[in-house]
Amino acid sequence: MGRAPPTNVAVKSSSANFSYRNGLAIGFRQLWTMLKRNTTLQIRYRRSTFAQVLLGPILFLFLLWILQKADTAQQLKSNYHPTPWTLPGIDMCQGSTPGDPCINIMFTPDTPEVRQILTTLNARNLIREPKVNLGFEDQYTDVMTVPSTTLGMVPVASSQFIYNYTLQNPNTTRFGIEFSIVDGPPKNYVYQTWFNFTNAANGTDPFGDSLLSFTRAVDEAIMLNADSSTAELQTTLKDFPLVPPSLASDEIVSSLGAMFFFCSMMVIFICVLNQIVTEKELHLRHSMQMMGLKTLVYWFAWWLSNALLVFISSLVICLFGMAFGFTMFTNTNFIALVITFFLFGMSMVTMAFWITTMVKASRTAILIGIFLFIIGLLFESMVFSNSYVGYIWYDSGTSVVAKYVLMFIPFFNFGKIFLDMSLYASGRLDTLTSTYIAGPGFHWNDLYDKIPDAYTPTYNAAGTRHPNVPPPIQSWYFMLMNIGVFAILTLYLDQVVADDYGNKRHLLFFLDPSFYGWNIRKKLSTHEWIAAQEANKTKRDAKMRSMTKKRDDIPVEDADDDDVIVERSIALNGDFETQARICNLQKVFRESSFRQSPLDKIAVKDLCLTLQEGKLLALLGQNGAGKSTTMNMLSGLTKSTGGDALFYGLSMNYEMAEIRSMMGVCPQHDILFDDMTAEEHIRLYAGLKNVPKEEIPALTEERLKAVRLWKVKDRFSRTYSGGMKRRLSMVISTLGDPKIIFLDEPTTGMDPTNRRHVWSFIEKFKQGRIIILTTHSMEEADILGDRICVMAHGRLRAIGNSIHLKNKFGAGYRISMMTDPSNTERVKGLIESMVPGCILKDDSAGALLYQFPPTSMGSIPRLVQWLEGVDGGSGSHKNSNTNSGQNTGQNTPLPRTANTDDISASLQQSSYLSTQPHFNNHSSDAEPLVHGYGISQTSLEEVFLKLIRDANPDGYQGYEVSKNNEKDQDATLRQRTTAA
Ligand SMILES: Nc1ncnc2c1ncn2[C@@H]1O[C@H](COP(=O)(O)OP(=O)(O)OP(=O)(O)O)[C@@H](O)[C@H]1O
């Protein structure tokens, strides 16, 4: 007792075990599920997976391979094909910079014997290239004496003088020589050569020919003057004293600068890629284009705003480069430098534009950006870090094709000119001597000169084969060419690559004069236009028939409703005056771009409609019925695959630009800039619509107040609720006084109060305008729709005003009335005699409920008059219907009355019509037979449901599946399964 039984422990431990195992199992299950999800996504994003798995590694390996090949080609040439060369004579000295005066040889002691040797040396030197005459000069006695012209052989008092002089005047003296001739026998010719091996920046090469030529010349002169059998020769070499560096090295900037400044421009490049593709992905660009924005203006605006950014960025780089004291910046022409950075930045920006035309998702754009970033980085860091690899492309051994390909790469052109500039501008720290050697500087004129051999590497052992490096300005020309080529490619691909809606132009669209605004098409009269549409339809149908001839499952389509047939004949009647008409409009979404397929989706089929000013057309239909596709075609967002529409005499297919200038669109999904306020949106779109500037503030206030967004006009749209965004989209569609407005589900997500505000705004706004609205709210269609169309499977199923549709497709009216139980039978008899065919639905304690089928509609006015007592019958009452139309409880305006519809007119005059039953409590002096009554009509929703039921005899799946496609899909699937 009181002791925990061992079984409990066992149970506990087993349950812990169980939960542990269970947890592990769940963990594995989740891991497996997530792995499956990731794999599915990776397969779905196959381009990005391809880039990650194959393109990346292969591309970089390929780059490495090319570099290795280029280098190997050089190495092989050097190793296997050495060419002999003749040692030249002593060449002319160079000062700190080419052209500075210098001393060729300083010698000591100044004895006749030494002079004799040096005279021989000069004589021999004059017979060898480059035949430099090294004549004797006056003795130097003062270390402060600086040569004003280049001197030959200068005698000095001692080797100490040579030391002091070269210390005081670095990079001025080429060779120093001190003779210590010891008489023999054997006579010992001892001499020591001093040389300067730090002065390499001016083109002299201390370790190459010159020192060799000098020692050879001295030895030869000694040999020619001495008795060789009794002579010995001893020589030593010595450096000139070293001057400590006065400045740090610039090598970091010159070798890594191209890479760093490339990175700085790549920030702009990736931002541009991301911004433009995101704008495309979110359909913001489409939205602006629908509001009349021109393609050229769109790109040029982006180009200009980025040009400003790039210019500021170039200035900042150059100014800060100078502030940091980099000689690359301080020693280079400022304007040349700014222009170089600007051209590079703009060529990258234009390249980004080009890439955006081929990319639809921002994640792909970022991926491409990163790819190019890495490639460019490798390029700049490996290729342009030194002139050996940087100029390899200009060597005679490199393929010309490489040069032509590379000139289309902006970062190649930038790397080249940056290397040119840094070679001129940057000094360097000699690692052997720790001596700073200043560069001559890059001047404007240097842009036009070929890079001198002195700055280029040698590609053979003789040091004579230099790459033929073009002048720096060539890189500017190439970058300008890059800007031009990428701009043209951007404008071209922007037209021919299909957008999200499948719109694209023909590959040779630029040959079409209409592209340049020259409309050489004959303007058709309405009759001709209709005839053309009919002819096209006949052709289409014939083609379709020939395609489906062999198939036994040709869909049998239901016959069109009478009203639809009438509407079609009106639309195809050229004599009927209307502001807009749609004829045989068709949209097929193709499975394959190359051929027709049974899986093609016919979203809209041969739609014919007329539209009038001031009359709002409400489009109803099940999900996928084709409403949005119809709107998208009419608003120019999607190209139709057949048929056309005429708005105020302008063809949708050929004159969309003109139509757009008088069109406003509220798309199904809000297309708003997250980081812009409502007011900024209105200003932007009003500007695109060319609303006069001074009218914009008043317009903004009026419209935002109308949809109750005025108080939040300064908040970013991303902070808006769904309903607020919708209202803003709605208002945007009304800017610029459009004559045609498309509202695709404009009130989705709005609360009932705001919806009513929007309704009343639309109701007022529709005067003098053509408005088409799609909605899933029957109430909205009932209230706003002057005409209502119901679509299913891309076809028009019914058309008419609300009352007409209710009468035609509804179950009729219901009337409920209260009588004294004692009078019930009398009332029943009277009603049945007045309205033959009426059906008694309920009879309990004096409460009668009758349904009047559509066939008995003609009798209802009389019944109403009787109930009202207008005909003096027993239903007569003084205060009839005090609450009529109120008990919907929502101030809902009554549905419109059709002129042709007597019943509805009669009911509406007596104000008894409502979609809800309502009661009239009569007060009467005489004893009435009926104390009160209520009347209701079939709701639009019931009509809609009936039409959808009829359109889907096999049952509505909840989405659009047209019969033929479903069959075809089944057949195709069967075929595929069999084949598998
Ligand atoms: N880009 C597309 N590619 C292929 N089929 C499409 C495409 N866009 C629409 N469809 C198909 O066309 C048909 C009509 O679509 P649409 O968007 O016009 O319907 P809707 O009536 O507006 O539907 P909802 O009420 O759901 O907005 C649907 O079957 C849809 O699947």
TrEMBL record:
SMART domains tied to this protein = AAA (SM00382)
Start and end residues of each stretch annotated as Disordered: 871-900, 958-980
> What spans are recorded as compositionally biased (Low complexity)?
879-892
Topology term for the membrane: Multi-pass membrane protein
Where does the record place the ABC transporter domain? 580-818
Which residues, if any, are the signal sequence? Answer: none
Q: Where are the transmembrane segments?
A: 49-67, 256-277, 297-322, 334-355, 367-394, 400-419
Q: Which UniProt keywords apply?
A: ATP-binding, Membrane, Nucleotide-binding, Transmembrane, Transmembrane helix, Transport
Q: Which GO terms describe its cellular component?
A: membrane
Q: What is its main location?
A: membrane
Matching Gene3D superfamilies = P-loop containing nucleotide triphosphate hydrolases
Superkingdom per UniProt: Eukaryota
- Name the Gene Ontology molecular function terms of this record: ABC-type transporter activity; ATP binding; ATP hydrolysis activity; lipid transporter activity
Q: Which subcellular locations apply to this protein?
A: Membrane
Q: InterPro entries, alphabetically?
A: AAA+_ATPase, ABC2_TM, ABC_transporter-like_ATP-bd, ABC_transporter-like_CS, ABCA, P-loop_NTPase
Biased composition (Basic and acidic residues) is annotated at: 963-973
- The protein's name is ABC-2 type transport system permease protein
- Please tell me the species this chain comes from: Entomortierella parvispora
